[in-house]
């Protein structure tokens, strides 16, 4: 047998047939062994037989039966599968005759199939004829599969149906109802149709940000073609979406990728303009499949694009178009750009309303209109690094999935009863082992309780199952209605007027009526199963994704916010004006009244050291996020040099650290709802304030990589010691600042900062030096903190009024604020107390009072 006359696929199949013969201990390779290999799933013969209407599984079972009939020869010197049977020899000869008649250079698999139909006295031939398959029928299927080509290459079969193998027929997907409806985008679809209708350069490329709907526009065009809602020149067109990944995958050897692409392009060329090739992420063709000494996909496409033999639709993002396509001018000039802009919030709401039914059917839930409006508006406001409508659809999908999971989970009410039942069953099992009278009495009571609980659990379970069944009925009816509408569309496209009339005037109205009845049927007031997606669920999803608390206030959080000012006053003592201004900004933001285009609040805190500027920022972080470390703290003394400004937003391209991003922008990008503390802001280089201008005005900042970072959900606090010397001169006893001192401080501040910077800050707050009353309260606070630390040793610590006043007087220095006071308490209270505890003078469960005796602090201990 001369292998040179057969295609690679036939040679491979004969080698596999030999393995079958060896495994079954057959001396000869016969037709049965060969066709056992050929009808395996994925093989060309199996695909052709399937298209001819043959039951492949039944045919394979018949072949197995014939193989079992062959006698097995045992023996030490017997060689298996080393020769071919007379019948297989006749088949190969017959195949060569057919190949010669078809002017084929090589014998292919389909030729073997045709040769089998001409053999006489062969069980497989007889079986095929009994199923009703004729040689002419098979010949037509083979001709269609080949696409009218002759076999001129040993790898010819690899090129068969290349478009089917490496592409997706979008027209077919639409006809099968696998595509979601495309809402809007009429202008862009018209642009694409106009470009496709041109004589030259009729290859549109859709350019837009990720998620704005570029691929959807092509799917919309496919839907219009199927509906015949296009000009005459496009009515017979088929859109094939080419999968570049599968085209490149597995192309190990040089030239293999080019051969695959050539086969695809050959099929497109043969269609004489009837196939529109769509390549998503078209920038991938530049450099795709390129190895040393070979061409990339872009260069293979250029000649066909230039001659107008290929109609190509591309889609890519703005950045990738600029980076890959624009650099190749010869490729770029063959395309016509269609810019796809992000839809508005109103357009997105329309898109969501159009897709609502599909999501309801898929998830089996009910989506309220307020959820659609919330998804569009809230995603536009809070998710700024992605684009509509993709981010809004993601929110709807996520919320639907969450409700679906809850629907399938055991309701809380039933779960509690089940757990209680389990607990009491364990108790019952234990009591059964006891013999005393008390245990027997308790067992009787318990069994009565168990009986009631089981009855309650069964009722709840039945109610839950009934509710799930009701919801499933609605979901099934919606699916049925959707299917009927798709059939109506299909009937109208095929001009099947009788079927269309029946569907339109009988089936669909009846289904709509039944659905209405199911949805309006009486339900219990309290449902165990939550099946509705509302704006509440959408807000919860956004809160989870971004960390921004926009969901409706629960009772606990409402109380927390109403008492925010009180909680801040407890921690930051003597600075009432500053505390009230900051807490009011937070309340405005949570009530939804703040300007949505600016940060939640921006403040400049002025005052001497140690009066509570940084402490207020920490206290706010603790009250909002339950942790004072939950803020971005940047020490501006590190930004005194001009070049250090780039550390905030990231280095420019080409500089070291470009990929790392900026300290400020990266922190906010990862956590958009946070407090930003810029400590000692007056020490920074003036260029830093220029960067902060756009943050204060528009709540946005562009980092070194060109990404826009959203600051609209941050509170910006800047602290400074400017004017401290004037504020220390303030001799007011009630903590107010005189107008003269305020004027002096503001003059100094205006001399240091530019007017455009100060003008953008919400409030400039001056912190006064602490009054003696405030200092005493701070002493009380520090002692209370020390007492909290001693709780682990079960020691209670208190202080009397005289000691408190003495510590305040001796430890406070107006020039340094409260920090020396803390050091004074450490040296005069904490250290002596530690010595007493270690010496064993103060034991656990003791109550210790700090008191003043002869101008010295003493500890009075009570057991």
TrEMBL record:
<feature type="domain" description="Clp R">
    <location>
        <begin position="1"/>
        <end position="148"/>
    </location>
</feature>
<dbReference type="GO" id="GO:0034605">
    <property type="term" value="P:cellular response to heat"/>
</dbReference>
<keyword id="KW-0143">Chaperone</keyword>
<dbReference type="Pfam" id="PF02861">
    <property type="entry name" value="Clp_N"/>
</dbReference>
<keyword id="KW-0067">ATP-binding</keyword>
<comment type="subunit">
    <text>Homohexamer; The oligomerization is ATP-dependent.</text>
</comment>
<dbReference type="Pfam" id="PF10431">
    <property type="entry name" value="ClpB_D2-small"/>
</dbReference>
<dbReference type="InterPro" id="IPR028299">
    <property type="entry name" value="ClpA/B_CS2"/>
</dbReference>
<dbReference type="InterPro" id="IPR019489">
    <property type="entry name" value="Clp_ATPase_C"/>
</dbReference>
<keyword id="KW-0547">Nucleotide-binding</keyword>
<dbReference type="InterPro" id="IPR018368">
    <property type="entry name" value="ClpA/B_CS1"/>
</dbReference>
<dbReference type="GO" id="GO:0005524">
    <property type="term" value="F:ATP binding"/>
</dbReference>
<dbReference type="Pfam" id="PF17871">
    <property type="entry name" value="AAA_lid_9"/>
</dbReference>
<keyword id="KW-0346">Stress response</keyword>
<keyword id="KW-0677">Repeat</keyword>
<dbReference type="InterPro" id="IPR041546">
    <property type="entry name" value="ClpA/ClpB_AAA_lid"/>
</dbReference>
<keyword id="KW-0175">Coiled coil</keyword>
<dbReference type="GO" id="GO:0016887">
    <property type="term" value="F:ATP hydrolysis activity"/>
</dbReference>
<dbReference type="InterPro" id="IPR003959">
    <property type="entry name" value="ATPase_AAA_core"/>
</dbReference>
<dbReference type="InterPro" id="IPR004176">
    <property type="entry name" value="Clp_R_N"/>
</dbReference>
<dbReference type="InterPro" id="IPR050130">
    <property type="entry name" value="ClpA_ClpB"/>
</dbReference>
<keyword id="KW-0963">Cytoplasm</keyword>
<comment type="similarity">
    <text>Belongs to the ClpA/ClpB family.</text>
</comment>
<dbReference type="InterPro" id="IPR036628">
    <property type="entry name" value="Clp_N_dom_sf"/>
</dbReference>
<dbReference type="Pfam" id="PF07724">
    <property type="entry name" value="AAA_2"/>
</dbReference>
<dbReference type="InterPro" id="IPR001270">
    <property type="entry name" value="ClpA/B"/>
</dbReference>
<comment type="subunit">
    <text>Homohexamer. The oligomerization is ATP-dependent.</text>
</comment>
<comment type="function">
    <text>Part of a stress-induced multi-chaperone system, it is involved in the recovery of the cell from heat-induced damage, in cooperation with DnaK, DnaJ and GrpE. Acts before DnaK, in the processing of protein aggregates. Protein binding stimulates the ATPase activity; ATP hydrolysis unfolds the denatured protein aggregates, which probably helps expose new hydrophobic binding sites on the surface of ClpB-bound aggregates, contributing to the solubilization and refolding of denatured protein aggregates by DnaK.</text>
</comment>
<dbReference type="InterPro" id="IPR027417">
    <property type="entry name" value="P-loop_NTPase"/>
</dbReference>
<dbReference type="InterPro" id="IPR017730">
    <property type="entry name" value="Chaperonin_ClpB"/>
</dbReference>
<dbReference type="InterPro" id="IPR003593">
    <property type="entry name" value="AAA+_ATPase"/>
</dbReference>
<feature type="coiled-coil region">
    <location>
        <begin position="414"/>
        <end position="521"/>
    </location>
</feature>
<dbReference type="GO" id="GO:0042026">
    <property type="term" value="P:protein refolding"/>
</dbReference>
<protein>
    <recommendedName>
        <fullName>Chaperone protein ClpB</fullName>
    </recommendedName>
</protein>
<dbReference type="GO" id="GO:0005737">
    <property type="term" value="C:cytoplasm"/>
</dbReference>
<dbReference type="Pfam" id="PF00004">
    <property type="entry name" value="AAA"/>
</dbReference>
